[in-house]
Specification:
Blueprint lengths: L11 H7 L2 H32 L5 H28 L8 H33 L2 H6 L3 H19 L1 H5 L3 E4 L4 E4 L11 H37 L2 H39 L4 H12 L1 H12 L1 H10 L7 H11 L5
Antiparallel strand pairs: 1-2
């Protein structure tokens, strides 16, 4: 994201990146690997979650929502790969550019919000079980929450839908997609500040803090009154979720804020680093199936059956049914 409104302001670092074939090849290779793992892992996950897992608890509903966003990203990445391999030359028109950019960023922020929702659901099931049991409308609340997430993210990203995100660079003979944003996308610097604040602090930092609180509380609760198998699985789930935040989401959002501030106020750029961080943000779609494995007993059992692995022993099954019923759905 550059925030440029004219070719004369296109910085040298961005121009150099467009001519760096080695960087575009590395990015394309990463996207290829992510695409394969994404489509295979999430294709299997959506089949298990939709057709083989019952009942559809709130956690399962949130996981289905997360899987759908991941599959949308996996379907969009081949277009990004083609764009990179053609030397940042977009040939599919402005509307397709806007749509695929929207898919890209919707995946990121819907994933962040959905993982927060899964964390809250587990927190209520383990730390506040009485409140959890009394709520008879949990499924409806989960569905409404998913719809609100999509509404919030699409509302914030609305400028991407209404702006021509392509940008022609005559001196290089290419037309970029989203790599050069026009200042005119938003009416003022204040609007840009509000846009970036919402992305970084409302859609990333706040959910991160809530998710961290939920999982730390869950681990603390289980460490005092639960057996090792439940505590170990909860810790592994918390580690996977926090790794996704730390590796996939944090660098991208921090660099987004830093780069945008530098471009808007100091005419400097960190675009190369930001571009590379976008690759790592896509890795979340490969790690999400691990979240399902540790968060859902049904998902684990169905996956083991498909992979022809031994199911849990009868003693473990009884223990899980007694201990995990409130929070493993």
């Amino acid at each position: 994201m550059t925030g440029n409104s004219s070719r004369l302001q296109l910085d040298n670092a961005t121009l150099a990146m467009f001519q760096n074939f080695k960087t575009s090849t590395v990015i394309s290779a990463i996207y290829m690997v992510v695409t394969v793992i994404n489509l295979v892992g999430n294709g299997l996950s959506i089949w298990l979650l939709v057709f083989r897992t019952s009942p559809k608890t709130p956690s399962i509903i949130f996981m289905i929502n997360l899987t759908l966003t991941d599959l949308a990203l996996g379907s969009a990445l081949p277009f990004q790969i083609s764009y990179q391999l053609q030397g940042y030359n977009w040939t599919l028109g402005s509307k397709m550019c806007s749509f695929l950019t929207l898919v890209f960023y919707t995946n990121m922020y819907c994933s962040i919000l959905t993982m927060m929702a899964i964390g809250i659901d587990r927190y209520l099931g383990i730390v506040k079980p009485m409140v959890f049991r009394k709520n008879k409308r949990r499924k409806s609340i989960a569905v409404i929450s998913c719809l609100l997430m999509w509404g919030l993210v699409l509302g914030v990203l609305y400028p991407l839908m209404t702006t021509d995100l392509t940008y022609h660079i005559p001196e290089l003979g290419i037309t970029t997609c989203f790599d050069v944003l026009k200042m005119s996308m938003l009416p003022s610097v204040a609007a840009w500040a509000a846009f970036l604040f919402t992305l970084v602090f409302i859609l990333f930092l706040l959910p991160f803090c809530v998710t961290t609180f939920c999982y730390v509380s869950v681990i603390y609760k289980l460490s005092s009154d639960c057996k090792t198998i439940q505590k170990g699985r909860a810790i592994r789930l918390a580690v996977v979720v926090l790794v996704v935040y730390a590796v996939c989401f944090a660098p991208n959002n921090i660099l987004l804020l830093t780069h945008s501030v530098l471009r808007l106020f100091y005419n400097k750029s960190m675009y190369m680093a930001y571009k590379l961080s976008l690759c790592f943000s896509c890795l979340n779609s490969c790690l999400d199936p691990f979240i399902y494995y540790f968060a859902s007993k049904d998902f684990r059992q169905k996956l083991r059956q498909i992979m022809n692995l031994h199911t849990l022993s009868s003693m473990d099954t009884i223990r899980l049914e007694n201990k995990e019923t409130l929070y493993s759905g």
